[in-house]
């Protein structure tokens, strides 16, 4: 067995080792704490720098907006201009609608001028003869300027007193007399030979009667040839 004096150095050595390990642990723990603190400090600094940068950018944008009021003013002017344009367009549409209702049965000035010129040519070309062999005739009218009124019919034509052929005959009579179909009473409309017809009509407003002779022109429709103004 070892003596007490022999065990004493071994015991002291173990105590020294434990103290050394304890100091080492303290140092390591202190270093870890220091590193963690440094990490926290750096993170805080980065965070505050980002906040300051964001605040600085926002401030600069606000200052730029305040220094350039023209942009907002221009936007407001553009909005007002759009509103004015919309109001103007709406007013124009209302005016057009009202004008259309007031003049739905009227032609535009260009058409009126064209009609007046055509009527003038026809009037200048008219050959009017007072009276005639028939005592019922006050005067006869022939106009070389008369033309066929056009047709929707195709193929070989034969007089048909109904349907499209009838409508086109009435159109030719209205064209020759200048009496609107709505102001016309048809007393008679019948055959007057091959591809020829004759009709007797009366104006509803003036009560004046007319006998109108028409003939068919292939692919062009009915054409007036003679108008007789009748006595009542």
Please name the defining characteristics of this protein.
232 residues, 6-stranded antiparallel beta sheet, 4 helices, alpha+beta, Protein Transport Mog1p, Chain A, 6 strands, DUF1510 domain-containing protein, 56% helix, rod-shaped, DUF1510
Topology readout:
Blueprint: H1 4-67, H2 69-102, H3 109-125, E1 127-130, E2 137-142, H4 163-177, E3 184-191, E4 196-203, E5 209-217, E6 221-230
Antiparallel strand pairs: 1-2, 2-6, 3-4, 4-5, 5-6
Organism: Bacillus benzoevorans
Protein name: DUF1510 domain-containing protein
Keywords: Membrane, Transmembrane, Transmembrane helix
Walk me through this protein's architecture.
The protein is an alpha+beta fold and 232 residues long. It has a domain at 111-230: 3-Layer(aba) Sandwich (Protein Transport Mog1p, Chain A), CATH 3.40.1000. Helices cover 56% and strands 19% of the residues. It is built from four helices and six strands. It has a six-stranded antiparallel sheet, with helices on one face. A hairpin with a 3-residue loop joins β5 and β6 (221-230). Residues 67-74 have low confidence and may be disordered. Residues 64-86, 93-125 have a biased composition (Basic and acidic residues). Keywords: Membrane, Transmembrane, Transmembrane helix. Residues 60-139 are annotated as: Disordered. Pfam families: DUF1510. InterPro entries: DUF1510 (IPR009988).
Q: Rg to the nearest angstrom?
A: 55 Å
**Tally of DSSP helical segments:** 4
The overall pLDDT, averaged over residues, is 77
Architecture (CATH level 2) name of the domain at 111-230: 3-Layer(aba) Sandwich
Residues in helix, %: 55-70%
Q: Unreliable runs, pLDDT <50, ≥5 residues?
A: 67-74
- Specify the structural class: alpha+beta
Strand order within the widest beta sheet? 1-2-6-5-4-3
Shape: rod-shaped
- CATH domain topology of the domain at 111-230: Protein Transport Mog1p, Chain A
Helix and strand element order: HHHEEHEEEE
